[in-house]
Amino acid sequence: SKVTLLVVLCSVISVMLCGTLSSFKSMTVSNEDAEQIMSQTCKSSAQDLDLTLSKIEQSVDTLANITTASIEDFSRFKKDDAYVTEITKALEPIALQFAKETEGALTYYIRYNPEFTEPTSGIFATKNTEDEPFEQLTPTDFSSYDPSDLEHVGWYYTPVNNGKPTWMDPYLNSNINVYMMSYVVPIFIDGESVGIVGMDIDFSKLQTQIDAITAYDTGYAFLVNADNQIMHHKSLEYGTALKDASSQLDEALTNNDNQYKEIGYTYNGEKMVG
What we know:
- It contains seven helices and twelve strands.
- Helix 1 (about 1-70) packs antiparallel against helix 3 (about 80-100).
- A hairpin with an 8-residue loop joins strand 2 (about 120-125) and strand 3 (about 135).
- The protein is α+β, with helices and mostly antiparallel strands.
C-alpha cells in the first residue's frame, strides 16, 4: 500500500507539474502572439492613416507651391489690387480641381495677408456633402476680427505664426453639423507672409478608419492630438485630457521612445495593454 501510495503521489505531482509548465508555456506563447499581433496591427494601421493624411498634405502643399509661383512680382502684389485679382482668377479653376481630387474635402481656400490686400481677398469655396458641387463664397472679412480671435480666424493666424504647415484640431461646423479638420500651409516670399492655402476635411472619414482598427475581441484604436487630448474615442468625449482617463497611458504616449512598444496601464479600474 505504501508503494502504491508513493506511485500515485508521484504521478499526481508529475501531472500537476507538467500541467503547470504547460499552462505557463501556453500563456507565454499566447502573450507573445498577442504582443506581435498588436504591434503589427498598430504599424499597419498607422501606415494607412499616414497615407490618408499624406494625400491631403500633398494636395494642399502642391496648391501652395502653385500659388507661390503665380506671384511673380511680390512687390506689385502688395500694392496692386488688379494684379491680386488677376492671380486669383487664374488660381480658381486650379484650386477647384485639387479640391475635387482630394477625398473628403468639404472646403478649400486661398487667403492673402490682410495687411496689404483687401480683407476679403482670395478664394473660399465649400459644400455640405461630398456629393454636392463646391460653391464659391465671399471669403471671411478679416477686418471684422482681431488676429487674436482664434475662434474665428485662428485657422489663418495659427499656421502663419507657426511658420509651417499645420494640422488644426477637429471642430464642429455648426452650419452643416459636421466635424472637420483642417490642413493649412502658410506662404512666405523672402521671409514675408503672403497668406495661406488650406482645406477642411470631413473628420468622419478618419473616424470611420479609426473605428475599423481592432485587435482580438476587445482591442480598439483611438486618436489624440499633440497635447494628448482625445480627438476620437469609443467612450471618452472629444477634448478629454488623456491624463484624466489614465495618467499611465498619458505618460507613456508622451515618451516617443514607446512607439510600437507594449504598454501596460489601468483604465476604468481594469488592467489594459496598449
